[in-house]
Amino acid sequence: MLVKMSKKAMPIPNVSGAPPPFATRIYTDAAGGDIKSNNGMGGVKVSWEGNLEDPFYLRWPEGIQRGEVKSMCVLELAAALGYVTCYAEKLRGKFVVVFIDNIASVLAWRRGFSKMDGLSSTIAKAFVYVAAAQRITLFTLHVTRCSNKGSKAADMLSKGATGAVLEQTAAAARIIEQEKWPRVPRALQEWFQDPRIDNELGPRINEEIQEKARGREETKELVEGEGKGRGNADPRPVGGRARKRKSDGKMRARIARK
User: Fold this and answer.
1) How far apart are CA 100 and CA 98, in angstroms?
2) Residues facing 57 on adjacent strands
3) Residue 232, number of CB atoms within 10 A of its CB
4) Please, what sign has the CA dihedral across residues 204, 214, 179, 26?
5) pLDDT in 10s for each residue of the chain, 258 residues
6) Of 12, 68, 157, 249, which one's alpha carbon is 20 to 30 angstroms from that of 83?
């Protein structure tokens, strides 16, 4: 038996799990630890015009530089998580696709855990939690290393070659003048200092993001309230001007009598 569900033909929905064409495109990368290097994690957004925007870089702490974390899956997932948490307010409520050149990291994100080790699962679970809490519809796709502009920029950032990438981004002046990059949540930085299996990492990171957002909202409301208060007040010295007009009138009257 056939049941007619629509008056006209309808397109077949896309159930492949592929991101929509309008999704924000992010490229992230991580370099292995090397105590004599500036290796770390980095990422960048690529606009539809092909411009590099919103760069991100963090040097690994000494423990990772000495090789305490050997799994590249962990480091690659950490780079993607680090970028999303740094720019959570900009990405909130959007469709986002993160391109990673490590296939194990892509698969770990899609499953929500890693079959390789517990540390990868910790980062993957935290990634899933933060994306859901921030209403980010997140996709991950594999990209061949240094195969396009975004993956090349992410690779350079992960190796500490930040100058070459900053020259191509609009954020260069802001980052160079302030001498600081977007701040990775404290909870994630502390985890880097002591990597361990931790199922509460995601909630802690999200709480920090929420506190930051609340602080900005309170500051904005305070500034707007002060602006409205100044706008309602009459800036003219009414009393002084009134007295001046009264004295001017008396002077004109005396002159007229003379």
Assistant:
1) 6
2) 42
3) 7
4) positive
5) 555 555 555 555 554 578 899 999 999 999 999 988 999 999 999 998 888 889 999 999 999 999 999 899 999 999 999 999 999 999 999 999 999 999 999 999 888 888 878 999 999 999 999 999 999 999 999 999 999 999 999 999 999 988 878 777 765 555 554 556 788 999 999 999 999 999 999 999 999 999 988 877 767 666 666 666 655 555 454 455 545 555 555 555 554 554
6) 68
Which residue type, as a one-letter code, is found at position 17? G
CB atoms under 10 Å from CB of 32, counted, come to: 16
Measured CA to CA, the distance from residue 219 to residue 107 in angstroms comes to 40
Task: Give the pTM.
Answer: 0.76
Look up the CATH number of domain 24-216. 3.30.420.10
Mutual angle of helices 72-86 and 118-133, in 10-degree steps:
20
| Residue-range domain boundaries for the chain | 24-216
CA dihedral 191, 197, 200, 206 (to 10 degrees): 40
Cα atoms found within 13 Å of the Cα of residue 21, Cβ hemisphere only: 0
CB contact at 8 A, 34 and 159: no
